[in-house]
Amino acid sequence: MNALRNRVQLIGNLGNDPEIINLDGGSKLAKFAVATNETYKNAKGEKVTDTQWHNVVAWGKT
Known about the structure:
- The protein has strands spanning 13-14, 19-22, 28-41, 47-59.
- The chain has no helices and four strands.
- Helix content is 0%, strand content 53%.
């Protein structure tokens, strides 16, 4: 088996409580949304906050 694993780290705020789904065979998954914010100043010097929503599905240890 290939030991390569992907890792993503999102630092933000949960949009709601995770939804835990029990699958056949005892496996579980969690579904949730994370909001990340980027704050910057526009050309006029005004503070702007850009929010991006990320839909996440976590398998395995939930």
